Input
Amino acid sequence: MPRFSIIVPSHGVAGRLSQALDSVLDQSFGDLELIPVCDGPDAPAAAVAAGYAGRDSRVTPVDSPPSAGLSGARNAGLTVATGAYVLFLDGDDLLLPGALAALDERLTRTAGVDVLYVEHERTPWWEGEPGNPAAPLLARAPKGAFAPDACPELTGVRLPAWSAVYRRAFLAEHGLAFPDGHFTDLGWGGLTTIAAGRVAVLRRVVVRHRLRRQGSRLNLPGAHQHTLLDQVELVLTRAAGSGLSAERSRALFDQLFAQVLRTASRPERLPAGHRAFFRRAGRLYRRHRPAGHRAPGGSLGVQHRLLASGAYTAFRALRGANQAAVRAGSAVPRPRMLRTRLRYARDLRRPLDPNLAVFCAYWGRGYACNPAAIHARARELAPHIRSVFLVEADQAHAMPEDVDHAVIGSRRAWELLARATYLINNANFAEGVVKRPGSVHLQTQHGTPLKTMGVDQSTYPVVAAQSGSFTKLLGRVDRWDFNLSANRHSTQVWERAFPGSYEHLEYGYPRNDVYYTATADDVARVRRELGVPEGRTAVLYAPTHRDHHTGFEPGLDLEAFCEAAGEDVVVLLRAHYFYDRGRGAGGGGRVIDVTAHRSSEDVCLAADALVTDYSSIMFDYANLDRPIVVYADDWEVYRETRGVCFDLMTEPPGPVARTPGELARVFRDGTYAGPESRAARAAFRERFCQFDDGRAAERVVRRVLLGEPPEAIPPVVPLAERVPAPAAATLVRS
Output
C-alpha cells in the first residue's frame, strides 16, 4: 500500500496539467500513487496523463465525465485510491518541493489522525505577493494531535479540500464523499471535520494554489449560486445529528453563514432569484441557529439580524443594489483623431449589423493566412455575410480586386469595427476596439507554437522587453470569444499563454486546407510563377525571427549550400514576415527570394523539401508529408533567449543539422528523404497535424458565422485517410 494517493482532477486545465503532475513525481518522497482524473479517453488531458502513465508505473489515470463536475472527478479518484492517506491537488496547482516528506514526518508524529490540515499559498496568476490564508487559522490549533473540540474554529469549511490530508480508512468508515454540485469543498470540509475524531495541523505551505486570471468559477453569476445553500443545509443537518459541542456548533454556524452573506450581498451573482436565495437562507438561519447564539457586532451583526427576520428590502438597502460595474477602460474608445473618436463613440451606440464581418491578418499586412481562407469559404457557405478586410494603406494596392477592404485608422474602418457582429483576426485588433455585447471575436492565431507566447514570455527578458504591456495584451485577449487551434499541443499552450474565458475551436487552420485540396496542376502553376526551373529540387529555406537580432540574418550561405547539396537543388528563401524582403537572393538563379510572395501556402506547395530552424512553418508544411530538415546551429541560444514549449531536438520532424556541412550532406546523400526521416515525420504529423484535413475553413464558417451547434460540425478526417497535395519532384535521390 503506498503512503499517499494524490488525486488530480484535470477538467479545463490541460495546459498546466503536466506542471501539476511533475510537481508530484519530482518529490523527494516517492512512496505514492498519482491519479489524474480526465474527462474521457479523447479529452485534451487524457493524452498528457497517458504519457505519464507510460513512463511511470505510479501514475494511474481514471475517467470521469465533465457532467459529474469536480465532485464526481474527485470521487472517481477516491474509488481507485489505495494509499494510506489521500491528498487532492487541482490540475493547475503545484505540490511544493519537500511537501510529501514533511507530511510523512508529521503524520508519523501524530499517528492515526483522521485529518491533517496544512497551509497553502494563494499565488496571483500574474503579479503581486502570494498569501497564506490558512496560517492565522492553523496558528491557533494545539501543537500535537487533538480532538476537534480543542479548536472549535477549525470547522473545515474555510479550507479547500487540497489544504488537508485525509486518512483513507477514516473516509471509508464514514462513507465520506464529495457532495454533488457546486461549492463542494465547503460541504466536504464540513462533513469531514464533523466526522473526525482526531486531527492535527502542519504549519507549512504544502500546495501552491495558482489563482486563475478569470477568477473562481464560483464567483460567476448564475443559478449555481443557489447550490451554496444546498451545501450549507447538508452540513448543518449532519451537524445536528452529530452531538457537536455548543462551541463547535456556533463556530460552524457563523462560518457557514459568513459564506451565505457574502453571496447575498452580491446581487450581481444572482441575476435571477436573489430574493428567493435570501428567503431560503433566512429559513435555514432560523431553523439551525444554535441555542444561545449571539450575532456578531458591527455591520455583519446587522446583516445577521436582517437575515434572521427575513427583511429583504432592508438588507438590499443596507448593502446597495451593487450591479456589475461597467469597466471604465474598456468603454473608452481610443482612435487617434478627436473627430474619429467622437464618430466611433456615436457608432458604438448604433445597432450591430448582424451580417457584417471584419477581417484582418498580420496587423494589416494584406489578404493572407487564416482570415483570408475563412473569408474565401464564407463567400461560398454564407453569402449573406458582408465581409470587409482591414489593411494598412501601403498594402491596399495588393488586395484582390474582388475583396472589399478599408484602410486601418480610416473613418470607415472605425465605423466597421463599431458595427460588425463578427471580427476575425490572426493577431489582435487595436487596443481601442470595444467588445460590444452580441459581437463575436474569433482569434485564428497564425502558427503552432514552438517558442513561448503571451504571458509565458515574461521570464525571458529579451522577449519581454519587446512585448509591451502584458496587461494590455490580456485586455485584448478578453475580447476573444473563440480561439482556433490546429492540435492539442496548441490548445494547451494557448490556455496557459493567453488565459481567458474564450472557447477553443480544435478545427485546424483554414490556411492549411489547400495542402489537401491543391492538385498537381496547382503545384506546377505555382512553381512556374516563382521561377523554379523544371526538373529541379526546390528546397524552401524559412528561418524564423531572432529576438536578439536587430535585422534579418540568413544564418546560412545559401549559394554555398546549393553547390554542396547537388547540382539540381535550388533554394526558395522566405524570411520571416517581419521583413519586407529577404537578403541573399541571387546566386545565378539558384537562390530565389520569395519573401515578398503574398502566400506562404503557395511557396510550401512549390517546395519539394523544407529547411527551417525554429519557424512554425514546419508544422504547416508537415501536412504535405514532404521532407523537413531542422537547421539548428544556435538552438541553445534560441532556447535560452526566446524560450520554447517543447524540445525540438528530441522530437524533430526529420534530420537535425548543426553545421552547414551537415546540412549539405543530408541532401547530398539523400538521408533527408530516407526511412529515418519518414519515421520522424510520421510521429511529428501524428502529434501536430491532428485537425488539419482540408475542411477547417468550412468548420469555422459553420460554427462562427452560421452559428451551427458543435455536434453539427463536420468531424476531422483521420490522418491515415488524408491525401496531401502531390509534390513536383521525386524526393528519393540515388
About this structure: Residues 83 and 480 are 43 Å apart (CA to CA). Confidence is low (pLDDT under 50) at residues 321-333, 548-552, 577-588, 730-734. DSSP finds 27 helices and 21 strands in the chain. The longest helix spans residues 246-264.
